[in-house]
User: Fold these one by one.
Assistant:
Number 1:
Amino acid sequence: MAVKKASEMFPKRLIEDVHKWGCMKQTGVSLRYMMEFGSKPTERNLLISAQFLHKELPIRVARRAIELETLPYGLSEKPAVLKVRDWYVESFRDMRAFPEIKDTSDEKDFTQMIKAVKVRHNNVVPMMALGVNQLKKGINSENLDEIHRFLDRFYLSRIGIRMLIGQHVELHNPNPPLHTVGYIHTKMSPMEVARNASEDARSICFREYGSAPEINIYGDPNFTFPYVPTHLHLMVFELVKNSLRAVQERFVDSDRIAPPIRIIVADGLEDVTIKVSDEGGGIARSGLPKIFTYLYSTARNPLEEELEIGTADVPVTMAGYGYGLPISRLYARYFGGDLQIISMEGYGTDAYLHLSRLGDSQEPLP
């Protein structure tokens, strides 16, 4: 199949516009600002929000579209990556084609358009994983460093774009759940989110292995703080899923009962920290630097070459294409937190998920 550059696939004027907007300065917002601004979703505030997104989103999307055209080692020419590039250029085109937002009617139409953009990009992560997986077979692992840096920037930007769109769309909910401002829960219980995420991970473990270790959660059940529950759920789910698999596989042929996974939630002045501890045998010290690199996984890869380019969602499995930890760390860093892994080979692993309690750090803008 002949590889076509964006300039051959799209009108010249559109590509020139992409490059012009890709050079503009991005504007970051904080969790606190999103929460305070969205707490009064009046028509005027929704109009201001839409006008901001009308200018901000094309800048962010254009930057990624340009980068997708200029990746090293032939990654830009992989069919899956070309598909992702087309999604970004199409979304840029749709946003730039939308006229100036002057009133509530314009704002509602704009909201429907960006909703469709968000849906268009639903499968970006598995599609990029497929492209990088195709590339991985043909290059040395040392050359992947540049690819990893790109993927960090790319996925961090994607988290931001989806947060901004999702937040704006959700502010239109006529019956928002109690204590929510868009995607943000102003009184989120980390204990409750950790419990729900753990149950989801255990159900997948049961499905794959027929059994699952117990999970014990410790912390103050009454403690709450403002955060995005979907982000926290994703991070805890990934950490618990890794721990369940490690413990399950270590004790599968043992007479001993598999030891429980322990989750501890601590509320400090600056950070809320969630520790996930397992006795799954740990990770060798030589392997620790690799765990935050994309496509590092000790499990079989569910992304097959035959995966259709127009595929539906890739099913969730216990282990996958090596994206769980690096993407979880990006979600933590997006609102000023972090994720650290400490391991004792021969015993188990502790994951420390730090979440900024203050909510005033600006989005990192790659």
Note: The radius of gyration is 21 Å.
Number 2:
Amino acid sequence: MAALLCGTKRKKQVSDLQEEGKHAINAPLIPSSAELHPEDTLLEENAERTMLDPTSREDAKLKDLQRVLIDWVNNELEEERIIVKDLEEDLYDGQVLQKLFEKLSGRKLNVAEVTQSEIGQKQKLQTVLEAVNELIQHHGWSTEWSVDLIHSKNLVAIISLLVGLAVHFQAAVRLPEHVSVQVLVVKKKDGVLHATHVTKELTTTTELMMGRFERDAFDTLLDHAPDKLNIVKKSLITFVNKHLNKLNLEVTELETQFADGVYLVLLMGLLENYFVPLYNFYLTPENFEQKVHNVSFAFELMQDGGLKKPKARPEDVVNLNLKSTLRVLYNLFTNYKNRE
């Protein structure tokens, strides 16, 4: 009996040793920081799966980018009474993406409104992504998303898609710059899983992203004719002071004095000949959000006055972006230059 027990014990030790040996061989191939789910290991030969490395998930810039995108989507879909709280859980089935694309493009997609089955969800995603890709690829974007990636709640793919939409439609948001994440690529070869890390860039600079599709006269002035730019700035200063002087206000620096939005709001009241109630804006804004509120409110007043929505974003004016400020003021100049 004792011999039988010893034999059984030895077999278990051998078995444990074999398992330990297997683990020692395979362990270096799978970084310990990555949490592989069962479906990640069930790969066909030569197939691969990508996933966000857990360490990147806690990155402050990535969290900030997610927050900005969620706020943007919710703002765009406010009339639909859609509230997104989690990009992975709320966008994977195509419903929100469909509504977002339709709102941004003004184009109705031929898809079922509600789809519960996986097949129906993927069919909807296919239609939405085909429409998105048709627009974005036309401008040279490489698509970093697919039906399977979005439906499997791949955060990198979902964020890449939203960033692409935000940039293409010139969304009035400031995307955090230089957001990169570590992506784990797992591939099965000869029955063994091999894992490598790849750095994925989700955003670059605001200039590269938002200036990607459109350059205007101010880009040319800044790049090639700084002497002429100074003439334009003097003309704009003369124009704004002609009206702001009525309130005993004077502008000497376009770059800084419009950044908090106060002069923009007051200028619109003067140009349209009405008093702007002080409770509608912050006369002495104390932080970034209050300044953005002021500039956004000024933009609303411009649209109320029949002007098109400014191409510049409120955040860029607040951040002292000269081209953005010039675009806004030049738009006012062309529409109100003869106004006394």
Note: Strands lie at 48-52, 180-189, 192-201.
